[in-house]
Amino acid sequence: MPNKRPHILLITTDQQRYDAMGFNGNRELETPNLDALAARGVNFDRGYVTCPVCIPARRTLISGQHPTTHGLRGYRDGLDWDPPYTLPGILGDAGYQTQLVGKLHLHPMGKRYGYDHIVLSETSNSRPSSPTQNRNDYVRWLKRHGIEDHPHAHGIDGNGRLVAPWHLEDRFHQNNWLAREAAQFLCEDRDPTSPFFLHLSFFHPHPPLVPLQHYLDRYERKTLPGPVLGEWAVEGEAKPGVPAERSVGPFDPEIIRRARAAYYALINHIDDCVAHVIERWREYGNPRMNEPLYILFSSDHGEMLGDHHLFRKSLGYEASAHVPYFISGFNVDLKPGRSDALCCWEDVLPTLADFAGVPLPEPCDGRSLAAICRGESDPDPREHIFGMCHGQFDNYFIVQGNHKYIWFSKTGEEQLFDLANDPNETRDLSGDAALLAPLRDRMAAEVERTGGVSYERETLRPCDNHTPSVFR
User: Fold this and answer.
1) pLDDT tens digits for 44-81?
2) Which among 41, 144, 286, 467 would be 20 to 30 A from 447, CA to CA?
3) Active-site choice (54, 273, 389, 463)
4) 206 in catalytic set
5) HEC secondary structure over the chain
6) Which of 7, 66, 70, 105 is catalytic?
């Protein structure tokens, strides 16, 4: 008998910014399959991550907890974590078969965090002596297929902006392996008598920027727009000797041009891999195609990609914290359209639990988006997003109404942007005291509520459209 309870497919990428998708306005990047999925569902145009770096975001994803609740406000590896509940755990308790394919990036390696089974690959790299990344099922698979070479023999840095085409046969690229493993679970290995929750977690477009040659050629031939440079951005010329993984430029324009082409190429490849997984599930004539399936697609953070002479993530800027976020599916109750409701990764757990008919555990920092997806009025509209990331730049941010406020807690510096009229954050309005005041009030209230840092108004320093000193 066909399964009546909805299946759930969660697809995440790593380091994909909101505008790195055709449906979100990018006319150069080809994502026809993701675009089609987004068009048949609800695209959330204001989706954010509240700590735009890998591990804190992934804690939030499976727990529904804000970083100030789960306790990780920046990147720290090797920390044990024992959340009161997880998304795969509550779905598993409700009778779902739960499976992870790809990146989990939680500690210790091998801990399932509620998944029945994990096919684990945190990175395309092989790090057998690493205490936090010594297991890689992708590398094991390569060895079983006769690939004894180190998978990063291409020499391209795993956090850098340098580029090379993939050096092995196309079928050995990690994107292809992830799609194969997901399709195998869906069509061969799963329990056909229970609904499933599958998290397909791509490692790319996170560097190393090593796309397949034919995808890279596609974007090398195009005339791609260059990075956005704000009036406040770092000034100067690129200098020789800048490390490949450095996050503050200026950078060599030609290297950035290639990096943007390779970044697009990796996303285009993922788009085709997603199409393969969906096509396998909905194979012609197979009764599976009539079963209800919800699909949620998003990314754990974005990528500055040379904007404002910055690279990588961890910042509250749109390129880093604003991510693709849509809910789609087949044979389920969705009213297609776009939503400007503020949402974040805290909302993934309550939304998918709602779709599955699973009671929401308490406490949970997120809220369900299911009503919006059904075309109903938003029962609990979020007034603002509060985020942060400790580390090199120690920054906190508020998105409220049309405005974005960024506070660098080490220096007291502030920036303010009008996202409605300046979505690329090119002009800093922090010199306007009247605009700044309500955002300061909101930040003060959030810091007082969550603790962990001191917000003292007498130390605040509006950048007033000048470069923050943290980037100099």
Assistant:
1) 999 999 999 999 999 999 999 999 999 999 999 999 99
2) 467
3) 54
4) no
5) CCCCCCEEEEEEEECCCCCCCHHHCCCCCCCHHHHHHHHCCEEECCEECCCCCHHHHHHHHHHCCCHHHHCCCECCCCCECCCCCCHHHHHHHCCCEEEEEECCCCECCCCCCCCCEEEECCCCCCCCCCCCCCCCHHHHHHHHCCCCCCCCCCCCCCCCCCECCCCCCHHHCHHHHHHHHHHHHHHHHCCCCCCEEEEEEEEEECCCECCCHHHHHHHHHCCCCCCCCCCCCCCCCCCCCCCCCCCECCCCHHHHHHHHHHHHHHHHHHHHHHHHHHHHHCCCCCHHHHCCEEEEEEECCCCCCCHHHECCCCCCCHHHHECCEEEEEECCCCCCEEECCCEEHHHHHHHHHHHHCCCCCCCCCCCCCHHHHCCCCCCCCCCEEEEEEECCCCEEEEEECCEEEEEECCCCEEEEEECCCCCCCCCCCCCCHHHHHHHHHHHHHHHHHHCCCCCCHHHCEECCCCCCHHHC
6) 105
CA distances from 11 to 83, 154, 373, 426 (A): 22, 27, 17, 31
Residues 329-346 have pLDDT tens digits of 999 999 999 999 999 999
Task: Look at residue 1 in the predicted model and tell me its pLDDT.
Answer: 37
The pLDDT, as a whole number, for residue 335 is 98
Region 87-96 average pLDDT:
98
Read off the pTM: 0.97
* Domains along the chain with CATH numbers: 7-383 (3.40.720.10), 394-471 (3.30.1120.10)
Give CA angle at 241 (238, 243), nearest 5°: 95
* Active site annotation includes 273: no
Question: How far is residue 419's CA from residue 81's CA, in Å, rounded to a whole number?
Answer: 36
Mean pLDDT of 364-386: 96
